[in-house]
């Protein structure tokens, strides 16, 4: 699903294209590696080694970009989510998948808005209904299980109006929730990344070893004059 124009972000688009490219390269690389190993083709094994090295370098570079550009990425995410919340409309079929994805984030992380529930005060539908409705996925009650992308009615609003402080929603913003989740699962994330890097290094070592063995066999088969 492609986000609408106002949701676009050059950095996020670049990151998506890089991931797509790496995925396609990985599939091609695996095929070439198997073909080269089975048929003992040195050039394919060399290409397999090169692809693995390129992927490993790309992963390291992506990690460095994320680390050193994290504040910029955070600002862009704030802008993207802010536009999403402002234009959130359950009747808009074009953005339904994107809105459901955001509902899922709010429900699973137990958060509301990007910095807090106050972000939803900018939503046009909520404003038109005098703040007497709120996103169901933000709810801290049983209504929070309703992830069909809609608003819940506030019980007994005073004089037909309300503020976000009157909503039965989670107080934590999703930005803090995501950061907390990353910190809590940092060990798992680093472990997975390290495991992938080790497997890639082993693949590079094995491909070089096979190339050397093939070269040695070819050399011994050469008739001596």
UniProtKB/TrEMBL annotation:
Pfam families for this protein: Tetraspanin (PF00335)
Transmembrane segments: 16-38, 45-68, 188-211
Membrane topology: Multi-pass membrane protein
GO cellular component, one term: plasma membrane
Keyword tags: Membrane, Transmembrane, Transmembrane helix
Compartment list: Membrane
Domain of life where this protein originates: Eukaryota
SUPFAM superfamilies recorded: Tetraspanin
Stored InterPro entries: Tetraspanin/Peripherin, Tetraspanin_animals, Tetraspanin_CS, Tetraspanin_EC2_sf
Family: Belongs to the tetraspanin (TM4SF) family.
Entry protein name: Tetraspanin
Taxonomic classification: Eukaryota, Metazoa, Chordata, Craniata, Vertebrata
